[in-house]
Amino acid sequence: MRTRTSTKSIIMFLGPAIILLMIFLILPMITSFFISLTNFNTFALADWSKAKFIGFENFIDLFEDELFWKSLFNTFYALIIAMPLTIILALFFAVLINREQTYFKNFFKVGFYLPFVTNTVAIAIVWKWILNPEYGLLNWFLGLFGINGPNWIGDPNWAMPSIIMLVVWKALGYNIIIFYAGLQNIPEFLYEAAELDGASRWQQFLKITVPMLRPTTYFVSVMVLIGYLQLFEEPYMLTNGGPLDSTLSVVLYLYRQGFKFFNLGYASSIAVILFLIIFILTILQTKLKKTEY
Amino acid sequence: MKKVFIILFVLSLTILSFSKTLTIWAMGEEAKKLNIIADDFIKENPNIEVKIQAIPWGSAHDKLITGIAGNTNPDLAQMGTTWMAEFGSMGVFENLEKDLKNSATVSKDIFFEGPFETTIVDNKIYGLPWYVDTRVLFYRTDLLKSVGYENGPENWEELYDAAKKLSEKGKYGLTMQTMEYQEIMPFIWQNNADILDEKGNITVTTPEFIEAIDFYSKFFKEKIAPLSLSGTLFQEFANGTVPMYFSGPWMINMTKEQTPEIKDKFNVKVVPSKKHGTSFVGGSNLVMFKNSKNKDIAWKFMEFVSRPEVQLKWYKEVGSLPSVKETWEDNYLKNNSMMSTFGKQLEKSKAPVNRPEWAQIEDALERRVQEACYGTKTPEEAAKDLKKDLEKILR
């Protein structure tokens, strides 16, 4: 039953959102793709005519840029460690919170969720102290067991693990809530039936919980993948990419090129590459999901 | 009817009392205190209004860019010395050469040489030094005395010797940053080396340059200096973990406030010399924009802030160092031994090369020096890689 008024009202309701999306998301994306084909820099800002079309030169430069490769390596290093860690831990805690025997459920939910909504700047300052090699809480704690803790953010080998620790801790809360919601949707009778058939707790988890959570897991892993590929705030606040560029992420490098050096053409080419990487990986994930069914 | 008359009367008054408005953009602490100076200026020139807009340092660069791009820039702006080349080469500043020639009070010679050089881009004078900042050696008198350098180290050999002995006795000999060009460049200049020569050729692979990097990184490789500080500099300086460091004038009062227990146990000294004792000079200039409609009063204001007495008042308000030499003759600064050390250092100070690509040069320099400090590259390798980076940046 489509009438004119309903079309009108659809446009009225959706219009503002679509227009805003166009102006602030779609248009800049297209623009940045075009800018990536020019040598847009500081001089062009004062006088746009100074920007020259240079084709794919930025991308060729990028290919030879050792720092870009390093930032790509760092980002994937963080992703490969942090992504499974986040998913497994989030599921683990969600199952724990979901148990009937758990007391203070809401307290735990809030506790895990807090880091996600806390300001990153504040978190970074507190973590800087936690990770301090001499006065830090973490090394004091390790010292209790006779372990001589490393110089967490001052040592090139430990800086990235420190960042990973921080991002996982920060991302947990949100993903626990998502998993928890997913767990709530699994019908109770499946477990009852399994119990009658003599399935152990572990078997129930593997044969019922994990398969039933598949859509949730898919959602979480896509979100986590996109989020971690855009790693920026934590290294920016905690280490500013150092020491020895060991925590320089792709977005942090993009930020430097774009807003520190104002090589906007070059920065846009980094953005385009990152967009393609995220795009391809997300499509791959979708394909994987389909084959599982 | 009466109302209409009053309105007309007021309107005609505002049109008649024709006053000019000068707009100034300033950053940080300066912006907060600038109205004090502006009020004095207005007292002298009652028909001029001054509008000061404060922009935070963090977003100042973007704001200036958008101001220039959109023609919404002020008449005058505060400009960090290292930004001069970048904005100057856009061609948006007024060349002040004529004004300087015709001025009765202001000339090139009243300023320190190093700071004045920062105003020159492409052989044009694009501003006046407003206030300056330079780095000197801070040292713990009692601890340095214990290794036989009561008055602090004079030159590179003594600096290394003192620091090494101190690190053997205590924890470290001094602290320096692996990623701070303001601390790296003086060592390079002191050995008569530089990043670029006058013709703009890259000179980072000269033996002098490599020797400076080698000397700088030696402190870190031999664990005389920490790769990263654990606590705050004040605490580490007070408890003797780091008996020496290089920093600017603001640290004097902050040290006395934060760690009063060592208030009489530290002193400042001009930087240790190799071939000479050159230090870094930074600070801010005042620049006039080409499209300003009030160039005459803008210049008037520039002349005003360059007066020794105004410079001194500014120092008392904000604590930033006067760029006008004569100000340092005042007893207020002369009788303050720590401050007069900064005055001495300004005589031998240098600013980094004025190039629009400075932000990238700085970034590359710091990265390569850090690699040498961590020992992942030899000073020669670091210098060779730096040369490659610079070739790419300056092509």
Secondary structure elements and pairings:
The complex is a heterodimer of chains A (293) and B (395).
Chain A: H1 4-35, H2 42-46, H3 57-64, H4 66-98, H5 105-117, H6 120-130, H7 137-144, H8 156-184, H9 188-196, H10 201-212, H11 214-229, H12 233-238, H13 250-260, H14 264-292
Chain B: H1 2-16, E1 20-27, H2 28-44, E2 48-55, H3 57-69, E3 76-80, H4 84-88, H5 97-102, H6 113-117, E4 120-121, E5 124-125, E6 128-134, E7 136-140, H7 141-146, H8 156-169, H9 181-190, H10 207-221, H11 233-238, E8 244-247, H12 250-258, E9 266-269, E10 279-288, H13 295-305, H14 308-318, E11 321-322, H15 331-334, H16 337-347, E12 349-350, H17 358-374, H18 379-394
Parallel strand pairs in B: 1-2, 1-3, 10-12
Antiparallel strand pairs in B: 3-10, 4-5, 6-10, 6-11, 7-8, 7-9
* Principal-axis shape of chain A: globular
Mean pLDDT over all positions of chain B:
89
Number of strand segments of chain A: 0
What assembly state would you assign to the polypeptide chains in this entry? heterodimer
% residues in beta strands of chain A: under 5%
Stretches of chain A where pLDDT is under 50 for at least 5 consecutive residues are none
Mass-distribution shape of chain B: globular
Biggest contact: A-B, 22 and 25 residues
Give the % helix of chain B. Answer: 40-55%
- N-end to C-end Cα span of chain A: 36 Å
Number of strands of chain B: 12
Average per-residue pLDDT of chain A, rounded, comes to 89
Summarize the structure.
The complex is a heterodimer of chains A (293) and B (395). With 293 residues, chain A is mostly helical. Chain A is built from 14 helices and no strands.
How would you portray this structure in words?
The complex is a heterodimer of chains A (293) and B (395). Chain A has helices spanning 4-35, 42-46, 57-64, 66-98, 105-117, 120-130, 137-144, 156-184, 188-196, 201-212, 214-229, 233-238, 250-260, 264-292. Chain A starts with a helix and ends with a helix. Chain A is globular. Chain A is 76% helix and 0% strand. In chain A, helix 4 packs antiparallel against helix 11 (214-229), helix 8 (156-184) runs antiparallel to helix 11 and helix 13 packs antiparallel against helix 14 (264-292). Chain A is mainly α. Chain B has 395 residues and is an alpha/beta fold. In chain B, the strands form 3 sheets. In chain B, strands 1, 2, 3, 6, 10, 11 and 12 form a 7-stranded mixed beta sheet that branches. In chain B, helix 2 packs antiparallel against helix 14. At the A-B interface, helix 2 and helix 13 of A face helix 3 and helix 17 of B.
